[in-house]
Write a structure and sequence with these properties.
mainly alpha, about 140 residues, 4 helices, Four Helix Bundle (Hemerythrin (Met), subunit A)
Length: about 140
C-alpha cells in the first residue's frame, strides 16, 4: 500500500502544480516501497537525487509564477521552500557520508511536510493565481 495516495483534497486548483505534486507523491512512494522491501539503502541515491532535483524544479516554477503574478505570500512561501531544500541537502550529505539511511522517521517527515505544505501553504496561492487567469 502506498504511503500517500492523491485525492482531490490535495488540489491547489492549478493543473501544472497538481501534476507536479502527484509526481512528488509518486517519488516519495517509490522510496517508501523500497524501504518496506528492505531495499531503501540500495535505491536511496536513485530516488533521493531525482526527488531533490524535481522538488527544486517544482519550487522554482511555483516561485516564478508567484513573482510574475505579484503573489503577496511569496516571501513566506519561498522561506518554506528554502527550509525543505536545506533539510534535504543535509540529508543527502549524511547519505554520502554513510551516516543516514531510509527510515520511518524520514518517510514520516517527507509525508507530513508534503501534505502540510500542499494543503496549507500551497493551497493559499491557488485562488490568487486562478484570479490572474492561471488554471
Amino acid at each position: 500500500m502506498a504511503l500517500l495516495v492523491w485525492n482531490d483534497s490535495y488540489s491547489v486548483k492549478v493543473r501544472r502544480f497538481d501534476d507536479q505534486h502527484k509526481k512528488l507523491i509518486d517519488l516519495v512512494n517509490q522510496l517508501h516501497e523500497a524501504m518496506k522491501a528492505g531495499k531503501g539503502s540500495a535505491i536511496l541515491n536513485d530516488v533521493l537525487g531525482p526527488l531533490a532535483a524535481y522538488t527544486q524544479t517544482h519550487f522554482s516554477e511555483e516561485e516564478r509564477l508567484m513573482l510574475y503574478n505579484g503573489y503577496p505570500g511569496y516571501m513566506e512561501h519561498k522561506k518554506a521552500h528554502d527550509q525543505l531544500v536545506a533539510h534535504v541537502r543535509d540529508f543527502q550529505k549524511q547519505v554520502e557520508a554513510g551516516t543516514a539511511s531510509v527510515s520511518l522517521g524520514l518517510m514520516t517527515f517527507l509525508k507530513d511536510w508534503l501534505l502540510q505544505h500542499i494543503q496549507g501553504v500551497d493551497r493559499k496561492y491557488g485562488p490568487y493565481l486562478n484570479e490572474k487567469g492561471v488554471a
